[in-house]
Write a structure and sequence with these properties.
Length: 286
């Protein structure tokens, strides 16, 4: 598909585009993303072979250069020099939005420090796609990238997030998903869990249940394949404190908390103002 450049629009020299690409279905790309790739002098990508499939699909004949974890430091300096010289560079990753668990931070910092404009071109994101369709609360979420591969480190990372009142979202490798689910069961118990696999692709799949229930569904399979986004329901809010305000304040004061600080803590825990707690104390005295 060819998209003509916008009329009477002059391309700004020295520009870094951050272009989101499809996470599976090649149709999940914006008109603006295609235009940015057409306008670029150079396309920096994780795997040139993977990106070439996308470019060929949309008839984009632009040079591509590798930019990945192993050459990011040196390549960032090279690309920054080209940006300073007036080149338009489009940064993409293999799938989704650049810099989200993918390289690119060094290049963005170098561009900003060089005074080169950085323009995000939004689009597909596995994190948001999985979250939206998960059925878990979306009012707050914590994205943690990839979970640590070692069991001990993975358990420690999950334990540190046990109190988060937000949906937890991670990427996980298919060959580690059974181990990850076992660790979730051991550290977080029977929280709701969703495994989103192969998003937007032919074999897209959502598995919902507890970690143990999903593990039981996956374990009999010969192997688990595909890109996986792992979501964990947020910690339940603590039950409301029914202790009379006077008793709660006095307990804190006996523990050494100054009276006004004790009133502030009780108010914060109960979602009240200091004035409301103070009024309750006065009412209790009367």
């Amino acid at each position: 598909m060819k998209i003509a450049a916008r009329p009477y629009t002059q391309i700004m020299p020295g520009l870094l585009y951050l272009v989101a690409t499809p996470i599976g279905n090649l149709e999940d790309i914006t008109y603006r993303a295609v235009r940015a790739l057409q306008e670029a002098d150079l396309i920096a990508c994780e795997d040139t072979r993977q990106t070439r499939k996308l470019l060929d699909h949309y008839g984009i004949d632009k040079p591509a250069i590798s930019y990945h974890d192993h050459n990011e430091a040196g390549r960032s300096e090279e690309l920054a020099a080209r940006l300073r010289a007036g080149a338009v560079v489009a940064l993409v990753c293999d799938a989704g939005t650049p810099l989200v668990s993918d390289p690119g931070y060094r290049l963005v910092r170098a561009a900003i420090e060089s005074g080169v404009p950085v323009q995000p071109v939004p689009g597909a994101s596995a994190v948001l796609a999985a979250l939206a369709a998960s059925g878990l609360p979306t009012d707050a979420f914590h994205f943690g990238g990839f979970l640590p591969p070692k069991p001990g480190q993975r358990a420690k990372a999950l334990e540190a997030l046990a109190g988060e009142e937000a949906t937890l979202v991670f990427y996980e490798a298919p060959h580690r998903i059974l181990e990850a689910l076992e660790t979730i069961e051991q550290t977080l118990g029977r929280r709701p869990v969703v495994v989103a696999r192969e998003l937007t692709k032919i074999h897209e799949e959502f598995l919902r249940g507890t970690a143990a229930e999903i593990r039981a569904q996956l374990a009999p399979r010969d192997s688990v394949k595909g890109e996986i986004t792992l979501l964990i329901g947020k910690a339940a809010a603590p039950p409301p404190d029914e202790t009379p305000a006077r008793e709660a304040v006095e307990a804190l004061m006996r523990a050494g908390t100054p009276r006004m600080d004790a009133i502030k803590q009780v108010a914060r825990r109960r979602g009240l103002s200091k004035r409301e707690v103070y009024d309750q104390l006065l009412a209790a005295r009367e």
